[in-house]
Write a structure and sequence with these properties.
With 330 residues, the protein is an alpha/beta fold. Helices cover 48% and strands 17% of the residues. It has two domains: 74 residues, Ribosomal Protein L15, Chain: K, domain 2, CATH 3.100.10.20; 235 residues, CRISPR-associated endonuclease Cas1, C-terminal domain (Four Helix Bundle (Hemerythrin (Met), subunit A)), CATH 1.20.120. It is built from eleven helices and twelve strands. The strands form four sheets. It has a four-stranded mixed sheet, with helices on both faces. Strands 4-3-2-6 form a four-stranded mixed sheet. A hairpin with a 4-residue loop joins strand 3 and strand 4. It is globular.
Amino acid sequence: MDDNYHVFTDGRLERHNDTVRLVTEDDDKKYLPIENAEALFLHGQIDFNTRLISFLNDQGVAIHVFGWYDYYAGSVMPERGQTSGRTLVEQVRAYDTPEHRQSLARKFIEGSIHNMRANVKYYDSRGYEFEGVIGRLEAQAAALDAGLDTEELMGVEATARRAYYSIFDEVLPDGFEFGGRQYNPPDNEVNSLISFGNSLVYANIVSAIRATALDPAVSFLHEPGERRYSLALDIADVFKPVLADRVIFRVVNRNQLDADSFESELNSCLLNETGRKTFSKAFEETLDKTVEHPRLNKNVSYQYLLRIEAYKLKKHLLAGEEYVPFKRWW
């Protein structure tokens, strides 16, 4: 599977012969083997020019840019590997058909609740008492009625996520108090981790969608909007518990991150550079993990699961195959 490369150092990215070179502010030079790259994630203050963009386009490598608060700021995507007018027409037709759109929106929430519940059940089996939370999540899954419109479906998902987030203060150690979701900006360490982790999930799904002929701006659960890839938001909800949240639990409970991994700025709490490097490394290690896929009968990486999800949606739109959202089975 192709690799992601995260750049935290300030400096300049440039094409050098047939590869990419990072020139730091101290004039150190580092080379990135982009022949194996899926995407570059830029976290520092990085300058680059059109010559680099043209080269990365030829190589099929995306750039994902993270700005202030290390929020996802945008992407420079290479030309699509696939283009299909029929796929776009069918995608827009599904969005514009209320019953079809709502059916897909329910599927995304169904997968999201299942994967949240899988995390809760994991910790419930390890000495915690989360039967009540599991029951609340199951109740919300049962509430996904076909008669609900998109806004009502999002309300079901929000209720489920509040129930799910209630376990965080018990699962995470002292010093990492959650107290509820706050963002823009995050107000404490846990919210900072959730925001950063969710941004990484989103950016990786943007790359996965690019491998298909799907339009990333035409979505079903989230309303399509300006300057965002709303289809990636739909699919990200399914994978946040498996990718972002599991990494949060692991790096914090293993003391890979502590209070010194964060900094406060303008009433916000943010990961510092060391913290972002630690989290990003753990996140990439998770993407590289493999599981045996029950339908493909082979081991696939977590990162490849994202691409499979996009292809499943495309097959549903073009061939009418039922879209079954990713549900963690292991």
